[in-house]
Write the structure tokens for this entry.
Amino acid sequence: MESELRNRRVGVLNAPAGQVLIGEIRDGHVVFHDQESYNGKTIWIRFKITPLTSDSAESEQAFSNDEGKTWKTNWINKYSRVKEQSL
């Protein structure tokens, strides 16, 4: 966590060693941004986590090739809490 409470960092599994996405809490979402090279061009990446209810959330990955003016979403995940079950 950064010195300011609202800033966050997250590691990326397939990223070069030490590379992290920098993010913040914005309008109820956690939003991370990164820049990577793709086919010789720099693209922007956005990863957003949105709480839907106290037991569910959604994450979205999107790319931009115009410095964040427009975004193309290519992945959406939905999460729900599993109720505790007896074994």
Notes: Strands lie at 7-11, 20-26, 29-38, 41-53, 56-64, 72-80.
